[in-house]
Amino acid sequence: MEKRSLLRMQGVRKRFGATLALDGVDLRVAEGSVLALIGENGAGKSTLMKILSGAYLPDEGKMWLGDEEYVPRNPLEARQMGVGMIYQELSLAPHLSVAENIVLGLEPCIGPFVDRRRMKRQAVEAMSDLGRPSIQPHTLVQELSIAEQQLVEIARAISAGCRVLIFDEPTSSLGRKDIELLFKVILKLKDKGIAIVYISHFLEEARALATEYVVLRDGRSVSAGRMDDITNPEIIESMVGRKVESLYPRTNRTPGEALLELENVSGWIKPCDASLTLHRGEVVGIAGIVGAGRTELLRAIFGLDAVKKGKIRIQGQLRTERAEGLEWNRGVGMVSEDRKGEGLALNLSLADNITLSSLKRFVSPSQLQERSGKWVEQFSIKCNDSSDEVNSLSGGNQQKIAISRLLEHDVDVLLLDEPTRGIDVAAKAEIYRLIDELAHRGKAILVVSSYLPELFGICDGIAVMGKSGLGPVRRTEETSEKQVMQEATASLSL
Fold this sequence. Notes:
The protein is of the alpha/beta class. It contains 16 helices and 23 strands. The radius of gyration is 24 Å and the shape is globular.
């Protein structure tokens, strides 16, 4: 028996000046179901959700909530009508308590005064419904973890009588255990009859939660149906408008000589006791729980963090204290996990970002254009030209620029920290193709990722970082995601 539609959108259009952000989108979500909303960055997902949550008014089209037409004039009105939004960047007041955040904007009152007893009772009931009664109503939100803050935001929606709940990239800042808890909460909400729209760049997440999907491309809904009736390559093909052979392309790789050797490397705090050998033409992944020291290992190799003990050899030469910080000149480059804070100069042009670390003398603008232009063409970076500010480009294109800088500097060893964080599935496929191409060219690549399907898809071997140090590199075909997780969690519980 088909479930009743709780939310419907028909022919929704939205224009911003000359830009047509949405061009006749149709969408349907049934009560007690999860709909995956999938699309590239810029496909129109955010605009559509802002219309749903009352932040924007549509120019054309209609929406229904249950049997009534739905036309919210602002987010508070949308919330009062039963539609809640959980943004990637949480919208809580950190200096207020859990209870105050849960009722914010809809405070229970006795006459002109806030009814604090009822406010506390609502908070206790909401957190208990989510299976986290340990989060106390009086606790300041700023004292909670990101995962706990997210639960407070969900509790706020539930407390307001939410019937439709929208999740926008909710796992982007969560570790694996917190993600598992969030999934349990979402499935619990589904069982209560709440209709859920789930936006994620991870297709595996969408498959784990959703029964239905809608794909947006260029502001239009181009594909919709049951998740069981479509494959991941078909979803990606719908997203980009062309055939994609594989999400994780792998050419035949023949490892060459050792380019990076670590021997019992330890930092002052992290990492702890890391030994590893990385060969030319090889991709090795570092797995582990968030906070285990994976990023610190890459920073130590690149000379950003001091090494307390151990040896680092780059292309057979032992690194000395005098050589620390000169890794660019020794053929090592790093892409930071914090793309916006550390990896790129967002207010500078694409050309400046690609060439900045390799310029030893003044060059003319035409030379900059020429040197950066070859990478724009080679890696299909979507831009008007290389004078565009990096801040104007999508996350996937920004990541290609960060990798292009390493190649402009002609490094042989690439250290990639969470190289696909915050970019859509189609852009990930492009980054994976690029990594495979670089390995085929003879580059040695060390990848840190919290996403195990990614590591198993692109790496030749995987090592696990735990409390006691870095484990041995195991060939991907000789291990499994379950074994990696068991090793990561067991080592941290010692």
